[in-house]
Write a structure and sequence with these properties.
Length: about 180
């Protein structure tokens, strides 16, 4: 861990420790914690979750970000298939084994798949860059390469897609919260 990231990891660890204390008896052991985004702030979440004993399942569209987090030991493994990632996270949760999985894909697609499988996480957060709809957020309705091209070719249309995707993302999070996710 380099100096600049220590504060982020410490703060994220403390946030999850507080959630563990408040909702899960002081530990995230035996819990599934779902989030999205492995950028600067979000990249600390998998390590913070496993340090608190939990299982982290994180959606990320940009594969290089997953690879970076695995290389720096902030993330345990990368999985490309969502069902495989969900299965592996549930297996680790059921065994009470800390594990962090970066799944290559869009947050909306992961949340939709979790709901289809009636798999509601214990905690649910989001670290995508929704504050920057053009550069920081990836719409779920178009593929990665199409999105990269559309950012340049038609930024207004890209932003429209991003806002639609953000709306769907929040709807899914609210549904999971209504079903018991913290």
């Amino acid at each position: 861990i380099y100096i600049g990231s220590q504060g982020i990891v410490q703060g994220t660890y403390e946030t999850y420790a507080a959630a563990a204390e408040k909702h899960f008896g002081g530990s995230l052991k035996g819990t599934l914690n779902v989030t999205a985004g492995l950028g600067g702030m979000g990249g600390a979440q998998p390590l913070a979750i496993t340090m608190n004993g939990g299982v982290a399942l994180i959606a990320e569209v940009e594969e290089w970000r997953i690879d970076k987090r695995v290389e720096t030991s902030y993330l345990d493994i990368k999985v490309r298939d969502m069902d495989e990632a969900i299965d592996r996270s549930l297996e680790a949760r059921d065994k009470g084994r800390p594990l962090s999985i970066g799944v290559l894909g869009n947050a909306v697609h992961l949340l939709e798949r979790l709901i289809q499988r009636n798999c509601i996480p214990d905690t649910l957060t989001d670290q995508t860059s929704a504050h920057d709809p053009l550069i920081g957020y990836w719409p779920h309705e178009i593929g990665y390469l199409q999105a990269k091209a559309l950012r340049t070719d038609n930024p207004r249309q890209y932003i429209d897609y991003a806002y639609g995707s953000m709306r769907r993302h929040v709807e899914l999070m609210l549904e999971m919260q209504a079903r018991g996710a913290v």
